[in-house]
Each structure stands twice: as C-alpha cells, then as structure tokens.
Design a protein that fits this description.
Elements lengths: L7 H9 L7 H14 L11 E6 L1 H4 L5 H15 L4 E6 L14 E4 L5 E7 L2 E5 L4 H15 L3 H14 L1
Parallel strand pairs: 1-2
Antiparallel strand pairs: 3-4, 4-5
Helix pairs in contact: 1-2, 4-6
Length: about 160
C-alpha cells in the first residue's frame, strides 16, 4: 500500500513489523512523516495522482481485520477524489507490464519528469532517457491492463463490506 494511501494505524502496523526493528520513538516519527506527506493529496493546485495496485495489497490483513477494514474504507474515500485515480490489477492476469516491481513517476511544477524506484537494496531516481521514457510507457500499459477506476472503487467497497 503506497504511503500516500495509508491510514495512521496501517502505517504504524507496517513500521512495527519492520526488520530490523525500529524503537517506539522511530515508529512514531516515521508515522508522523508519512501522514504529513499525505497533505499532497489536498494541496492547491490539486495534483493529478494515479495508482495501480496489486490486489494482494487489499487482501493481506496488515494490522489485523479492524485496521484493514478502516484502510479499505479510507482507500475508497481517496478513490472518490476527482483528482485521484486508483486502479487494481486483475488478480487473475497471468502477466502485466510492471511485474518487475513498483515505481513512482513524478512531474515537477516546471514539468520536469523523473521516476523514483525503491526496493530492498535502496532507492534511486531515474532522470535520463531512455530509462525514464520506458517507465512512463510501462505505466501507460500497466494502467490499460488494470481495472477501471470505477470497477476498482466498487471492488474496494465490496471488500470493506465483507471484511
């Protein structure tokens, strides 16, 4: 679940289960920082934001049933924002363009494009072509392969009801 979409309880559960362990103060600092970054969702002018999520993100009960139910409800609220599009990848697809891992595409206020990739071994920015262009192309194909935002919202709401 991307940090921009996490509830406080979900974020805390993520940081609490990390290895090596954070101490309580570090957990609270990281949760506070994550929640502060979520102000991006309501800043002016409204940013254009989209996500494609694997279905497993919605079925793995991080933090337990109560935390996950609240997370799903929050996700549905965010998905209803007119400047945010959330799409789920069909869990029965045999393949899709982004199987090799997550990435974040960014565009600055001066229209400079870059990508951010984070993994087990660290993180880095991609600023040069052809790699940058390939990631933007990959995201376009990935979005085309995923559920529509409307079907995604229906799926999230149904999952929250059933939990």
């Amino acid at each position: 679940m991307p940090g921009l979409l996490q509830t406080e309880a979900y974020a805390r559960a993520v940081f609490t289960s990390r290895y090596p362990n954070y101490d309580d103060e570090e957990i609270e600092e990281k949760v506070a920082a994550r929640l502060a970054r979520q102000k991006l969702l309501s800043r002016r002018p409204l940013p254009d934001i989209s996500f494609v999520l694997e279905m497993i993100v919605l079925t793995r009960p991080i933090g337990g049933r109560r935390v996950m139910k609240a997370q799903l409800r929050h996700l549905a609220e965010v998905a209803r924002l007119r400047h945010v599009r959330i799409q789920l990848m069909d869990p029965y697809r045999e393949d899709h363009a982004a199987l090799d891992g997550p990435f974040v595409l960014l565009e600055t206020d001066k229209r400079r494009q870059l990508a951010y990739i984070e993994g087990q071994g660290g993180s880095f920015f991609v600023t040069e072509h052809p790699q940058l262009g390939n990631l933007f192309g990959k995201y376009g194909v990935t979005r085309a392969q995923a559920y529509t935002p409307e079907r995604t919202l229906e799926t999230i709401e149904k999952m929250a009801e059933e939990l």
